Amino acid sequence: MAHPLDEVCPVAIRHESVRLIDDASLSIVFTSEKPSICMLYDKQTGQHSVYCIRKIRSDEWLEMSDKLSNSVSSMHNLSHRLKNRVSAWETTKGIPQHSGSPFVSRPNSGTSSNSHYQQQSRSLSPMATISRCQSPTVSPLLTGNPWLRSTRLHNSLRNLSTNTSINTNNTNLGTLEAYHSVNPLLCFDHVWTDTFTSQQETLNTGPASKVFLSDDLVGRWYLCYLIPSRSQLSIVHIEFLNINLPSFGILTSISAKDAISIPHLHMIAILEHSGNVVLYSGLTVVGKLHVGGVLAQHAPSPCIMRTLPQFNSPFPRRSTLLPHYGTPKGDPIFDEQILSPVLPIVSPSRNFNTNIPLQVDTFKICGIDPERPQLNGLRDAVEDRLTLQYSDNTFYRIVLPALASSTLVENCLNALRQTLQRDFAITLLTRWYAARNAPGPDDFSLVQEWNMFTALIYELLGYDNDQSSDMPLESPLTPSSAAKKQRPSSLGTDADWNSLLESDYHKHSSDQLSKILHLHTKVDKTVTFAKHSEIQVNTNSILFPCIRVIHYTLHLVYEELKLNIVRTEELPYLGQFLSKLACSLNLKEYVIYYWKDFPEHCSLNFTNPTSISSNNLKNTIQWSIMSEKPESIMEHIYNLLIDIEVSPFPYIFNVNERSKAIVQLCGVYIKGSKSSNNGICLDNLINFVSLPSSKIDPFSTPKSKIIDTTQDIAEKVVILMTEMGITSRDLDSFPSGINFLLHDALWQCRENPPADWSANAYNLLHRPDLAAQTEIVKKSKLEANTKKQIMACNSSSSPEVLPTIKQVDDTEQEDGMEDINSSLLKLRFPEDHRVLEARRLLQSSKPVPIALVQRPDVSDHDFIEEQEKHLYAICARTMALPVGRGMFTLRTATPVVTEPLPLPKLCLSGKAPPRGVTVELSHIEYPQNMQQWPLFHNGVANGLRISPDAHNIDSTWIIFNKPQISADMEYAGFLMALGLNGHLPNLTLLNTYYYLSKSNEMTSIGVLLGLAAAMRGRPNRVITRMLSIHVENLLPPTSMELDLPQNVQIAALLSVGLLYQASAHRHITEVLLAEIGRPPGPEMENSVDRESYSLAAGLALGLVTLKQGCRPSGLSDLNVPDNLHYYMVGGNKRPLEGPQKDKYKVPSFQIREGSTVNLDVTAPGATLALGLMYLGTSNKALADWMTPPETEYLLDFVRPDFLMLRILSKGLIMWDEIRPNRDWIENQIPETIRPFCMVKPSPLSSDVDYEAMNQAYCNIVAGACFAMGLKYAGSANHEAFTTLLHYCHMFTSLTAKSIAELAGKPTIETCLNVVLLSASMVTFRHLYVLAAEPRLVIPKDVITGRMCYAGLRVVHLDGSSSFLRGPCLIPDLNNLIKLSIEDDRYWSVIFERGRNWDQLL
């Protein structure tokens, strides 16, 4: 299977020809995903084979299908004959007939080759169909196959006999036919088979118990598999010249008891039958492990070491410095007998086929107890650690040492591994690993390890130890050197004289002796090295042919180290070594070059013959790039600065990467600053050194990159630095000159860098603020539920901005505003206590004080009634407070999902001072349902404080918050609030049905409005069906009538408008248009609250057709504007249309309307629907429909309060013409009525209806103020606020004047409320949440992570600018062109249209 949901299909195998795998003797012992190969074991031949796993090709499938078609037809005939024989047998024996395979009747899914070829596997790799792990456990390929039994099918078909069960063969035939009828998807392509010949087939070999891939220290890969029956580890070399078809080399076998790969060290640990653990790197022996600190019974017997001939060493055993007590040492060390740098005097071909009886004989010779615990397993290799498993179930976890401890030696080894031929490199690395980790102390210093490394290099180059000793005498030597130097010369050497010169006695007495003996020549104390003599080099040494390559490679490493000031102390050691080699190679300019750098460590003595003869150098490897003049990275960059033509700097992959980066960066910046050509090719600045044995992937050819210098070259350099992975830490390690050069490019871009850079580029500029902002934008794009936020600096949901909702122990103290006292509001309003004062005013959970004084003439009973009447008047204010509290606490906190959301009480009682007597409404009459909607709003306000980004708001938590006591009103409002914040869709459909089926009016309203608000503008079929149940015209005419409350139907109508907002859905538009003028029903239906129903239908229609009036939305044949105008101005009733038209043929028995449209019902909704439909279109014709009548006669045909709605709709249509001044409002008043507005009646104008004129004036002004408030809502426009405040004062002053009687005090109060509402601009009660947008800028200090003050500059579309202090609310983004942080304490952050404006949206 390529996927768990796919059909089980057969696998094809290609070995000379293509066929299906139907051989039960094959089993899979190993799989690998990279490379995509597997190893199969053939039980009959005893051989292991490797196959590439790939998808089957179409031509292979056609070839295989032709073969299968012939075989299937023959199997049909054979199956028919067998069925007849079975039937006869069952008739005579009376045995019930055995049913065939259930897979025989399976339809053939692969009859067409084209259909098969088009199938696509869901697997990312063909290897996914076999296994996701590299388990070596033997898993039979077909044992568990439902089509095949334990016998081999092709043998059972070929060798049918009388003693074979006919039923079994019949079943196999059916399953085989079904097996062949399924299309294979994968093919095993044969690559390699092991080379064991027929003379070994007599052994019961068995499959491999462990298979793994391993690489050596020079990058060669090997396939290793352990065969327990042969006690051998087979290793075969793999070449990946073609990733789809690897090639295999010669098979090599090593006698092994167990083996395991150590990928971190590029080695293999092999457990020999003698109990020793030997390290191999590929086929090269590294050494034998010596593990200290084990128990006595687990320590290897020294008798084995002395007896086995392959472990004998010609060198004396060096005693270890490890103690025999205390805590065992964690790192293992190596036995010097095997890890000596000089090869042991044994046969070059190691005895890989050591027989198992050798182990037994050894035990007999040594007299070892066979019951002694033996090391029998290696396991759990992780990085440089592995576990030793003993036969008594004892385990030891050991850590293998690293290749080197100092970075200098590590860099040199890596460089030589890259440039030397692989055979030379593997010898160097293995010899170094053995010499470095020989028994003894392993905590070498830099000097000690470097001297050990150079000594090994000298030895492998063939230097005589006496001639190559340019180190102090106390330098540690290699093990072989130590053996040769155990008997010092009695004649003495120059090193002895140097030792005397370095002694303390000479330092104290040299000056005095010179004066006494009158010695004028003073001995140079700094020269502590022996004078060079003629060098004797063994030209047959293994690395001597590579001496020039070694010198050139390490010279590039030397130049690389110059670019890192942190590693300056390592340069003298490498320079001294290179000076020695250069002197030997007669490279005088190199010698002078090193002496100029470190004259204290390098010598310029050319008097003695110190070079290797030219005849010996003829056979060394030379590269064409090598010259007599040394390469200097500093000189190269200096020549670039002074505009001298230079040749490309040499570059070797993975040797001098830093040099390549510096040369390219400096070259681009210097040349790009001086010239304005089209571009600079980066590859032309460096010279790629092609190695004879390149280890670079031949299939990955780097593409040449050209830098465009016509643009800002500094920005190009910064981008290039980011692509190279250079960080600020790397810049600090560059030499000062290069550091200044690159920082010059950085400083040019630092103040105002491009907005589309990555966070790494901004960090390189030391702009963590922009880097944090980039991460926020990147994160917001990945998260689907992330809302639009504006953060000047680093901003994420932190406890300071969105605190967790606090749980108050005393429920009496809960007021729903516990989270308001946050650090954000303290920063926004630091100069006063307005936040605390607003909290006090909006508090509705505590009894209000009833501060009345009982007069002497008032009885106690009358005083109680007076107190309750006063309380009743205050309750009107208290019941309105939840709406304001919802705005105050909107999206301010996140709930704790393990606790219910605290619900503040709506307290309608009072306290009478001084005794605090409770006053309740118990002696006066008041509406019993007075608290119904206030409690609903209290629940909405409580739910609105939940942030839309709150997590884990699921169906379980929503149900968990349902109160146990009777609080359905608050919970209904809570559900609506969850919808407004986008969380209600998490409620499961079953729970939604439960809430709607309870027939609770308020709960149904909350659920319907909440779901529609959450899915606003995204029509959903499930929610549409839910709403259709509550809207009669959305149901078919034959549907059953439901007894639904009128308020639920109104909520459903408005929900339809929200759900289909701006969709111009034809059917929904047609239904809502008809609902505006729905007549009263024949009985009691549609006779109550018709005005609210029609208004809701009009608003819903306006939402569905929002801004669609002048667009071709497919509604032209419905004549929506004409019908709405008909409902607005009146006329004769038109015939009913729609699915429910037959229901209203009979007129209502309760309401008699006549033959004309009832404008009192239809006009408000139709007027607002037209305004929303043509919002912002500036349609003059529609605007003229909304213009107030010019004459007194026409004013009599319009209800005064309808003029308010018409002016409002006109403002919506002419949205762009609204201006925030009094002139615009006064221009909405007709010229004919202005002289008669708010003036005393004149006796000369007795025929003027002053009441109509003044009522029209007040409503027109109120409607214009409402439109202005909508236009400038949340913009903090001071001019608009001043204008609205002026008219508020005007209407307030009119209430105390007699002139107010001209319009009527109710009209004045209504208009005053509208104007006050315009100033605060809150519409549709809680539906204002849908219009709320995040425009709060919260600057944060990226260093401390805390909010801070910062100056902001806002530039409007008209070019005007204003300065704010953040945190603050900024104006509408649609009216801005630029927003920037301008503060002396912080870097400037600029958001500009057309540049990075989308980060604010």
From TrEMBL:
Belongs to the APC1 family. InterPro entries: Apc1, Apc1_3rd, Apc1_MidN, ARM-like. It comes from Ignelater luminosus. One of its GO terms (molecular function) is molecular adaptor activity. Keywords: Cell cycle, Cell division, Mitosis, Repeat. The keyword Repeat applies. Residues 462-771 form the Anaphase-promoting complex subunit 1 middle domain. Coiled coil: none annotated. This is Anaphase-promoting complex subunit 1. GO terms for biological process: anaphase-promoting complex-dependent catabolic process; cell division; metaphase/anaphase transition of mitotic cell cycle; protein K11-linked ubiquitination. Pfam families: APC1_3rd, Apc1_MidN. Residues 93-121, 471-491 are annotated as: Disordered. GO terms for cellular component: anaphase-promoting complex. Residues 1335-1400 form the Anaphase-promoting complex subunit 1 beta-sandwich domain. It comes from the Eukaryota. Residues 98-121, 477-491 have a biased composition (Polar residues).
